[in-house]
Amino acid sequence: MAYRVALIVAVVLVAVGLPLFGTPYLIDVGTLVLVYVMLGLGLNVVVGYAGLLDLGYAAFFAIGAYTTALLMVRYHVAFWLTLPAATFFTALSGVVIGTPTLRMRSDYLAIVTLGFGEIVRIAATNFTFTGGPEGVYGIPHPTIGGFVLRSPQAMYSLGMAFALLVLVGGYNLARSRLGRAWLAIREDEAAAQAAGIYPVYYKLMAYVLGAIFAGAAGSFFAVKLTAINPSSFTFIQSVTILMVIILGGMGSLPGVILGAAVIVILPEGLREFDKYRMFTFGIGLIVLMLLRPQGLWPSRIGQIVRRAVAVSEASAAGRPP
Amino acid sequence: MRRGIAALVMLTFLVPVAALGVGAQGATIKIGVPVPLSGGNAKMGDDIAKAATLAAEEWNAKGGILGKKLEIVSFDDACDAQASVTAAHKLIDAGVVAVAGGYCSSAAIPASAVYHDASVAFVADASSNPKLTDQGFENVFRVIGRDDQQGPYAAGFMTKTLKAKRIAVIHDNTVYAKGLADATKAALEGMSGAQIVFFDAVTPGEKDFSAVLTKVKSLNPEATYYTGYYPEGGLVAKQFKDLGVSGKFLAGDANNDPTFISEAGNASEGVFVTSTPLPQDQSTATAFIDRYKKRWNQDPGPYSALEYDAVNVVIDAIRRVKVTDRATIIKAIAATKDYKGATGTINFNKKGDRASVLYITYIIKNGKFVPYGVS
Amino acid sequence: MQIALQQLVNGLTVGAFYALIALGYTMVYGIIRLINFAHGDIYAVGAFLGLSLYGLLTFLHIDNPVLTTLLALVISMGCTGLLGVLLYRVAYRPLLHARLSILISAIGGSLALEYGLFLIYSPSFLVYPHLFGRAGPSLGSIQISWLQVFIFVSSIMLMTALYLLVHRTKIGMAMRALAINQDAARLMGIDVNRVIALTFFLGSALAAFAGVLTGLYYSQISFLMGFLLGLKAFTAAVLGGIGNIPGAVLGGFLLGVMEGLAAGYFSSRWKDVVAFAILIIILVVRPRGLLGERVVERM
Predict the structure, then answer these.
(1) What is the DSSP letter of A318?
(2) Beta strands A227-228; A136-137: pairing state
(3) Backbone angles phi, psi at B70, to 5 degrees
(4) Interchain pair B214, C225: CB under 8 A
(5) Distance from CA of B268 to the nearest CA of C (A)
(6) Band of the pLDDT at A318, cuts 50, 70, 90?
(7) Model pTM?
């Protein structure tokens, strides 16, 4: 327990101290962590809360980023006004991909979402209005009043504001009626249905909310990077986001933050290893999982339920073929 | 116990992080070299970084510049927008006075904005997409030509020298390849008599292009121009021959690598490659090639000489103004006049592009790139 | 017509590679419900081992192309099979009951294999010897080489052998029992770990077979070659109904042909979109793939 408190204090200190004392590079790395915190929290709604394996989550991230980028560059819309548009389009895409696929079981859902992710990326590469492979560049910095958010510190603060909003949203969702319904569906869909919870509606809600979180992350990503192209939204990106939440501990908010930090900082820290960087990263992932199979900071609710499920699974003898 | 071990493992990973911030201003003059060191383009990045190191070592052997030693700081940009932006911040943090390098245009464009905000000069060595300098950043230069210079050249070669009328253009949907393909297409459309019968992309990383080439075959082209990179280029050339597609096969300047020939085998004979002159065909570059081979015990890559020049242009600018102030270096690089590099004379125009870039065509004969005709 | 037949040949060639690799995905998934992300990289390892073996055999003055190819195939399959077992032992076995953590372990394994090849061999593209020419049976203007014929015939034979092994032998029965219920299988006296290890061995050996043939047929290999092909093969396995051996074969060939037709008659740069769109439609209509059976969901 003391270990957890110490970690929380350390994380808060680093998060606050970084823009004050950090170099631009460290602040940039910190900002990237925030992007993955947002993405992780969003995917956590889909995978952690609702139990739907999504391998194409980067698609929603892309839709948010492209909406903001295109509106700002082509139509000179202010950053803040692009946010409702990004929310609308990502939510819509959540419905579009969600509706036909939600009756599928998890691994088939995984490949369908993977396909959706690839379709979005390839379409962004092929269409002219999205800028093709070059993507959109020269995205202006956002402004508040007359103040231009340009410096790494300003971007970090903006990212922090976004991440905190998403964090509060994620926290409240878990404890809402929706959150309890998701938990029920995740653990036993048939029983939940018997209790009057209509799974398709709730699953769709998970998709839509998860998509909106990713869209917000995408809007921020676009103005942070000032140039986006389809290569930022590959299958690998989707997998990286998935790694964030599994490394951290499914369904756990502190876990997502920890997972995001590890996934960004680990490869950066390993830069000194030069050629051995990616190899070491791969080995590191295996070692981390072997040592902490439930993630770095497992959610306690999840743990209890998992134990219960393990017991019931063990007792359930012959399953139907 | 297990938790203790886990914490320990995590700490081990975090130790290098502590070292990240260290190393600002020192006794050396640092030049940043962002290149892909992981992913599919790692080989190119390695060749580029080696050329940069060679340039710095040569000056250091002469006692350095302004009484200080030069140091090359090289980071992996993975040819990725996000990674290149992070690498750019890290280079700036490390205290580089200017940046010379980069490979993929898709990584160079986002990074150029970071260098712009920090007023750091960025001399691109291999990123040829027009957008890089069209952004209007005063700190961005390049020593390579633009795709919209090579495109018209290739179009002219196909229609005038080869007298081809029906032309197929294949790219791979990367920033560079699409840019070159678009430029070629635009030039062909402006020429009377030339007809583009095919214009489409293959997917980088794949190995089987027979479906596309079968379609191309059915269109009976007189010339087919591939504008992607050599790993797929060699395969496209081989399958082009295997399927018996009509007409000549040409490839863009990312294919002037020996691997193209070894992949395609006999099918590479008679393939044309449009390119700036390779180092071995430039009298100015022979000395560089000898020194590179001696230092690294391998042949320079296609972009090594350009990187060598990019680094030297930066050094030349610093020597002229005798300060290491970043903004002053930008102005000094812009004022570069007739710098004699390994790839010829270097001047920059208003946009930061290299003035007067020469393109020639190579033909592959007996497993070697041989200049075609005399230009 | 000639063009259409040529496109069919093109698609079936690609499909053979998809099918060989899809089998590894489907077998492992069928038994332990794991999407083995490292499987594509196992295929790359097989290709690299094959290249080393060709080098070694040339060094030993064994020059007969047919003999060297057979030796390279067999030895590479054996070694890669063992590597697959090792991967299972180290990275997967301790995590068999942590469904998502094992996925991350598999991604870690994938990266470690990719960059292991990067470190041991080279970051650049390597080239296989050009041993077999373009000669082939004459079928009008359709281009097909003996090597392509060999790829078809040998992969169909291997797939049939695998099918017979799983459905006609005792060890195959153990595999199927395991797929249905691991605990019950253990109670029946089946050595669960050995059967799973054998599954990994077989899947990895088939991938190595595909790897060496890739080198021979396409001539170029690289440390990242397994990524994209692995993704496609996984798609093929799901298309056919994951966990189902004939399904993986059908899915592989079907995906290859679909891509070929999409590239040939629609547009090459949209072909993956077409392939994935068809996949999604098929899964909406048949949620368990073309030949998939009802399986119990395990979280």
Answers:
(1) P
(2) antiparallel
(3) -95, 150
(4) no
(5) 13
(6) very low
(7) 0.88
